[in-house]
Each structure stands twice: as structure tokens, then as C-alpha cells.
Design brief:
This protein has four helices and 13 strands. By secondary structure, the chain is of the alpha/beta class. The mean pLDDT is about 90.
Length: about 200
Amino acid sequence: MRESTQQIGKLEIICGPMFSGKSEELIRRIRRAKIAQQQVIVFKPKLDTRRGIRTVTSHNGSYVEAIAVDKLEEIATYIVQDPSIQVIGFDEVQFFPQEIIDHIMKLVNAGKRVIAAGLDLDFRGIPFGPLPTLLAIADQITKLQSICMVCGKDAPFTQRLIDNKPAAFEDKLILLGAQESYQARCRGCYRIDRVPTFTEHAL
């Protein structure tokens, strides 16, 4: 039986709370791909301007060049312009609309290695945006934890703080910020004024 020569794609997901090293791990994999002489490109949502518009930067200061996109159609344009691209990174993938899933899978089915990093839970403790589906269809998942900034235990949750108090469940979903607005928390130290009913948030 003759083997297919078609390049096989792959979807890798890096997820976890804030301050868990997601961007750092994405950057590490992208740098390794560059060392292997592979052609790479990294995308980020245009709304995320916290550490510069032209880079993905980790909290420890490491970075790679990135392209901030406003419309998903821009992604395909960049790939078509350079068909030699083999590895495609996405940072803060939770901020992209649900349609990003189809765009990512087209890349995977075209033989690309796609590495996407993002928050798996929002500040309410609810699965965030396209992440639930991406996790379900991924070839490889790396789920990171941070350190609880209250007790020091492993922390899977992101606690939003407003005036040093836990944000309310009904507050707006997206609020860009870092240590001034968010903490990593363990399950015991995480606080929210209403426990979510997950069936109401199911896709």
C-alpha cells in the first residue's frame, strides 16, 4: 500500500489561567520551530494591546513577532501570500470569535502545525469563547496552572478584582489588564457572587 505524501497537520492547545505561562510556552515552541528552520507566523487579536501590538510578550519579558488581526479573513490572506509557512501560532485565542475554529481547522487540514494559547476559563469560571471546542478537537493539550496569590496552592482560576474586591458575575466579560486587575486563585480562594449553571452556558 503506497503511503500518502500529504503533509499531516496538527492542533496544539496551551491553556490555563492568567500568569500560568501560556504565552511563554507558545513563544518557546515558536522559537524551537525557528531553530528547526521552519517558516512560522504568529497572530493575536487586535484588541490585545497590553504589551505591544507587534509582539506576543510573556510576563517574564520574552517575545516573538506577531501580527495583530481585526478580521479573521486577514489570517488567510497572510497564509496565501506565503505558502511556505509551516507553523502558525495564535495567542489569546479566547478573544477571537467562534469562527476562528473553522479558520484554524482549515489550516490544520491543509497540513499546518497550529499552536493556540488562551484562557480556558473566564473570570466567572465559565469555559471561554472558542476554547471548549478547540480543546475537544485538539491533537495535543497542555493545561497549565498558576500559583494562587492568596495561599500558594496550584491555581486553575483567574480572579478579577475591582478596587481589590472580587468582580461581580454580571460584570462585562472582557476587561484587559494584568496584576492590577487579576490574580490567579485556587478553587478554595476563588470568589464569585454567583455560581454558574453550566448548562445555561453550554454551546
